[in-house]
């Protein structure tokens, strides 16, 4: 099915062509006509499915058709869990709208950076706001943004919004929106809290599910390697050298571990950088740019920071530390094999994380042979009587779990 059969305007079809998209992905083919008909949408969409353009394109079309008032009123609101995803959605809107006759003004707002430039940017209004919930509320509290004219709300990666503890903020934002509006709801997974929100929010939604169809599933090979915890960095170095990997995203459990592993790799001249929530936004942007431009070979990331990283041609993802939950596992491996490319997701499993790995496998309905690499055969025996608790976060001894840690743990129990 070509893009031209979806009901998009000639200007948007041109934009799609300039963006290099030849045919719609399945979620785009299903979502775009439904949104153009004014329907609410409940999309079960994995990362890499093309869901961003699936909601951005019809949203842009509706804005083109609507009144062009000054000052501008926020008509489209996109809520996302992380600043990286906010930046990516903002960029997709910018690129797809740059040649339109009435290019909308897009404001991308997220926490962790000064609020003042965002307030300045919102002077004179904006047509579309892409936001993380906390910062949006701060801006609303400061009267920097009015949401009473929103006609379309998009919740992107709704499960992640809950994982990150944004439920309360979401409730407050929904109270600021007009009751009459279109709602587009996207999530990779549907734990009970997400289902409940979808039910209250959506009116007779068109349900769109593309992930479960095998031919649409990203081509990701999953493997697990048994290795002693203390030898994981050496094994990683070995695998990078042996396989000639040029770009590897490595997941670890803590910021501390991200720093340490990246440091160890740099010491042996493997260009690596940590990527975590305590880095400044500028530094994160730099690391991503260097990674995309192949100036960096390895990025060692924590889950929260890596959420939303979208890098085409990321052939390998390594779980150096196992994810805390099956949900995180899906998100992690979804970083590779995007948009039809193939990918490899490798998990290091050591004696103390064996039980936790079994749990992830069970939830994922996976059964992988635990491989061994010559020279790295595990020496440590699996202790008996282990529970399947998430792996220790290590590194920062005595640190109490943060609110987000607790929320993540709760989410992983639910998953
Ligand atoms: P998303 O799932 O929205 O994060 O998109 C994943 C990747 O697929 C991004 O790099 C998009 O630029 C790309 N993409 C989205 N739609 C298409 C399409 N129709 N054809 C090719 N690539 C696409």
Structure description:
The chain is of the alpha/beta class. Helices cover 40% and strands 15% of the residues. The protein has a 7-stranded parallel beta sheet with strand order 3-4-2-5-6-1-7, sandwiched between helices. It has a 7-stranded parallel beta sheet with strand order 10-11-9-12-13-8-14. Helix 12 links the parallel strand 10 and strand 11. It is globular and about 70 Å long. The two termini are 35 Å apart. The protein binds adenosine monophosphate.
Please supply descriptive tags for the structure shown above.
415 residues; alpha/beta; Rossmann fold; seven-stranded parallel β-sheet; 16 helices; 14 strands; 40% helix; binds adenosine monophosphate
The CATH class name of the largest domain reads: Alpha Beta
Tell me the name of the CATH homologous superfamily of the largest domain.
P-loop containing nucleotide triphosphate hydrolases
The total of beta strands comes to 14
Q: Please outline the major beta sheet.
A: 7 strands, parallel
In angstroms, what separates the terminal alpha carbons?
A: 35 Å
The spatial strand order of the largest sheet comes to: 3-4-2-5-6-1-7
Question: What ligands are attached or bound here?
Answer: adenosine monophosphate
């Amino acid at each position: 099915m070509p893009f031209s059969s979806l009901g998009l305007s000639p200007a948007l079809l041109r934009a799609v062509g300039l963006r290099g998209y030849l045919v719609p992905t399945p979620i785009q083919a299903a979502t775009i006509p439904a949104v153009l008909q004014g329907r609410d949408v409940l999309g079960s969409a994995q990362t890499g499915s093309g869901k961003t353009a699936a909601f951005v394109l019809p949203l842009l079309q509706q804005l083109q058709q609507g009144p062009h008032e000054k000052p501008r009123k926020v008509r489209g609101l996109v809520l996302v869990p992380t600043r990286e995803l906010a930046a990516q959605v903002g960029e997709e809107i910018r690129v797809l709208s740059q040649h339109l006759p009435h290019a909308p003004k897009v404001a991308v707002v997220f926490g962790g950076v000064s609020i003042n430039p965002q307030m300045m940017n919102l002077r004179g209004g904006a047509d579309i706001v892409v936001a993380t919930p906390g910062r949006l509320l701060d801006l609303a509290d400061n009267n920097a943004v009015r949401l009473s004219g929103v006609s379309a709300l998009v919740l992107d990666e709704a499960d992640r919004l809950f994982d990150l503890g944004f439920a309360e903020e979401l409730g407050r934002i929904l109270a600021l929106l007009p009751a009459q509006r279109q709602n587009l709801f996207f999530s990779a997974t549907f734990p009970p809290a997400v289902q409940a929100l979808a039910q209250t929010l959506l009116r007779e939604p068109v349900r769109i599910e593309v992930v479960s169809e095998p031919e649409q599933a990203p081509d990701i090979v999953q493997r697990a390697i048994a290795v002693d915890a203390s030898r994981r960095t050496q094994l990683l170095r070995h695998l990078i050298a042996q396989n000639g990997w040029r770009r590897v995203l490595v997941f670890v459990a803590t910021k501390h571990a991200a720093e340490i592993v990246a440091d160890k790799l740099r010491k042996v001249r493997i260009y690596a950088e940590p990527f975590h929530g305590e880095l400044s936004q500028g530094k994160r942007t730099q690391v991503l740019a260097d990674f995309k431009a192949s100036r960096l070979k390895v990025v060692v990331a924590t889950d929260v920071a890596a959420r939303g990283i979208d890098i085409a041609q990321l052939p390998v993802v390594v779980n150096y530390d196992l994810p805390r939950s099956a949900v995180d596992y899906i998100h992690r491996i979804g970083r590779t094999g995007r948009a039809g490319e193939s990918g490899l997701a490798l998990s290091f499993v050591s004696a103390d994380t064996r039980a936790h790995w079994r749990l992830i496998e069970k939830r994922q309905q996976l059964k992988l042979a635990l491989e061994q690499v010559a020279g790295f055969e595990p020496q440590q025996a699996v202790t008996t009587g282990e529970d399947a608790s998430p792996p220790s976060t290590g590194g920062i001894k005595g640190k109490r779990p943060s609110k987000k840690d607790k929320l993540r743990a709760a989410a992983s129990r639910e998953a």
